[in-house]
Every structure is written in C-alpha cells, then in structure tokens.
C-alpha cells in the first residue's frame, strides 16, 4: 500500500528479534526484509532507489540467502530498471532471473514469463511483449493470483494501447483498475487511471 515509514519500522523490529534465531533463519529474515524494503521503494515510485537497493542487497546476500530471496530482489531490480527505461540492464537481469529460477519453485516460472514480457515492452518489441504478457495473464488467472493478474493486465493494457488495439486495452485496464481498488494498490490504480485516460483520448482522436 506504499506505507514506507511503517514498513521500515516493522522491519527494524523484526531484525532486532532475528539475532535470537539460528543462522539459517537469520538469512531468511535478512533476505525477506531486503526484498520487502526494495518493493516498498518501488511502491513509492522511487524507482532509482529501488533498483540500487535491490542490486546492493543482492550482491551482499548472494552467497548466504536462499535462492527465492535472490529471485525476489532480482525481480524488483529488473522491474525498476524497466521503469527507468534501461532496456540493456533489464535484459541482463532477465538472463540472471531465468538462471536463478532453474533452482527455485515452479511458481517462479510464471514470473519469468511476466518479466520477459515487461522487458520486451521496454525494448519496444510489442508483438513479443503481447505474446509473453498474454501467457503470463492466463497463468496467473488460472491460479487466481489477483495481484499479478492486476499487474500483468496493466502492462497488457499498455502494450495494446501502443498497438492501437483500444478495445482490448480498455477491457484489460478496466479489470486492472477494479482489482487495484479491491486490493488497495493505490500506486497501481493511479498509473492505470493515467493509461485509461490515454486510451480514452486515443478513442476520441480516432472517432474524429
């Protein structure tokens, strides 16, 4: 929900109690905390800070934390690099993500398809991005993972707008807006409203 101050306070409290745990548990807490804080920066639209924090923590934790936490940090940095319009860095991170996913849970395969689509969109390869994101949307929908249905729907809407398929873009963005409101994803809802306004403007332009 973007409440970064409360997130920081809660993570500080968790770290205080983590000293009482086993080394393996401490590694899990540290890795999880790093990913949550990086995501918190991203939720506040602090994309540069999110990318640098994820990269720093990934390098620090790479040899000590379980693979799922490395995957989470990799995904946050990749997403932030895309938002910062850094396609080369994002492509390199996608290669790393796909490598790490080989040793992670099956569920991460869905994320690989999603982030492949986001990278392709950032690179300007709209047909490939549409194919990847459509596959990811179906995968998350089949699992009833509403958070990632919403996120994938946002990017699908952006791709479809760029492809001038305004009717399909409108449908995906309407669903994303509904889910973002239900899940109280304020930042996603705001970005979706901007895209919906752009679709409406394009529709008016074509109608003239």
Give short descriptive properties of this protein.
0% strand; 208 residues; mainly alpha; globular
Protein architecture, described:
By secondary structure, the protein is mostly helical. 83% of the residues lie in helices and 0% in strands. It has 10 helices and no strands. Helix 1 runs antiparallel to helix 2, helix 7 packs antiparallel against helix 8 and helix 9 runs antiparallel to helix 10. It is globular and about 55 Å long. The protein starts with a helix and ends with a helix. The mean pLDDT is 82.
Structural classification: mainly alpha
Quote the average pLDDT: 82
Number of helices: 10
Strand content: under 5%
Helix content: over 70%
The rounded distance between the terminal residues' Cα atoms is 40 Å
Low-confidence stretches: none
- Overall 3D geometry? globular
* SSE order, one letter for each helix or strand: HHHHHHHHHH
Computed CA radius of gyration, to the nearest angstrom:
18 Å
Q: Tally the beta strands.
A: 0
Characterize the largest beta sheet: strand count, sense, and whether it forms a barrel: none
Topology:
Layout lengths: L3 H15 L4 H21 L3 H15 L5 H17 L3 H15 L6 H16 L2 H17 L3 H17 L3 H17 L3 H22 L1
Helix pairs in contact: 1-2, 2-3, 2-4, 3-4, 4-5, 4-6, 5-6, 6-7, 7-8, 8-9, 8-10, 9-10
Q: Can you give me a brief rundown of this structure?
A:
83% of the residues lie in helices and 0% in strands.
